[in-house]
């Protein structure tokens, strides 16, 4: 195997939170979301014309429960 060329991606789709890890060069790295966290809430919200995911969707769920849906 050539070092640096092979990467294995692991996705944990949990009922509450999700996480993505990458195994490359004998190391495991956890991918951060847009807010810098290693885990992302597993939820979706639909607001006006946009679809929101993760932290943003969770915040919107608190404000307007009719637009909130659990992702899994």
Written account of the structure:
The protein has one helix spanning 54-63, and strands spanning 7-13, 17-24, 27-30, 40-41, 43-47, 50-53, 68-70. It has a single domain (7-70), classed as Nucleotidyltransferase, domain 5. By secondary structure, it is mostly beta strands. 14% of the residues lie in helices and 46% in strands.
CATH topology: Nucleotidyltransferase, domain 5
Task: Report the sheet with the most strands, covering strand number, pairing sense and barrel closure.
Answer: 4 strands, antiparallel
Q: Unreliable stretches, pLDDT < 50, 5 or more residues?
A: none
Head-to-tail CA distance between termini: 36 Å
Count of DSSP-assigned helices: 1
Estimated structural class: mainly beta
Please give the domain count.
1
User: Helix share of residues?
Assistant: 10-25%
> Strand share of the residues?
over 45%
Pfam families: HSP70
GO molecular function, one term: ATP binding
Family: Belongs to the heat shock protein 70 family.
Organism: Piromyces finnis
